[in-house]
Amino acid sequence: MPLTTLSLITLQPGHARWALAQMGTAPPQLRRVAGLRFAKLLGSGAGGFGALPNLRRYGLMAVWDDAAAATAFFAQHPLWQAYQTRAAETWTAHLGPLKAHGLWDGAAPFDYVADTPPAVGAPVAVLTRASIRWWKTPRFWRYVAPTSAALAGAPGVALAIGLGELPVVRQATFSVWRSAAAMQQYAYHDARHREAMRLTRQENWYAEEMFARFQVLSSAGTVDGRDPLAGLFADG
């Protein structure tokens, strides 16, 4: 059964140049990893959600043939070990798709059914990703960026971060919610979020977009010195 993972890597000071170089050199290495069917190395926004980059925090979104392939990569692959030796902390979530639509670089990486039924009240994660039409970027950053930043303070949010493949024009938001009910309350009732989504459709901001919702199967590690999902799993 396939497995999706999202890892956040916070580097120690002094590794900015190395990390920027990896954005160009790591993808070819990832394409050669056994059992890795889809991978994106992502930068993050300053302050969590900003057009300017955070040069110390990066993300790795990956879809594996099975859990064994993921375990092997995180245990021994030289690329991951290179990040680990430079990291102040890492956090990885194991995810099972609940719903996904749209494309990411022409692919539908989360188009499979997880074999674990979602537990009632369990944490869920949401990924929204878009390639923004360059002439629409001023409108995007005026309306969507403040809305995304406010997401971090929404009731029930355990973690929220802006990620991207390219500054300004290829952007994603990843959020983890303590329950599906909290996520749905925000999605359907937050006025700023609803207005941003209305403008997105009305003004056709995106050349390509994807939305995916996941059950969080497990997580390990820390972000900003804490486990964002501490206590929400039996082994946590």
Q: Provide the gyration radius in Å.
A: 17 Å
| Extended strand count | 8
- Give the amount of beta strand, in percent: 35-45%
Helix content: 25-40%
What sequence of helices (H) and strands (E) makes up the elements? EHEEHHEEHEEHHE
- Give me the side-by-side strand order of the main sheet: 1-3-2-6-7-5-8-4
Could you say which structural class the secondary elements and strand pairing correspond to? alpha+beta
What's the rounded overall pLDDT mean? 86
Please tell me what the overall shape is.
globular
The biggest sheet amounts to: 8 strands, antiparallel, barrel
First and last CA, distance: 24 Å
The residue ranges in which pLDDT falls below 50 over 5 or more consecutive positions are none
Number of helices, where a helix is a run of at least 4 consecutive DSSP H or I residues:
6
Q: Any overview of this molecule?
A:
This protein starts with a strand and ends in a 15-residue tail after the last strand. The model has no long low-confidence stretch (mean pLDDT 86). 31% of the residues lie in helices and 38% in strands. It has 236 residues and is an alpha+beta fold. It is globular, with a radius of gyration of 17 Å.
Key terms for this structure?
236 residues; alpha+beta; 8-stranded antiparallel barrel; 6 helices; 31% helix
Give the gist of this structure:
The chain is an alpha+beta fold and 236 residues long. It has six helices and eight strands, in the order E-H-E-E-H-H-E-E-H-E-E-H-H-E. The protein has an eight-stranded antiparallel beta barrel, surrounded by five helices.
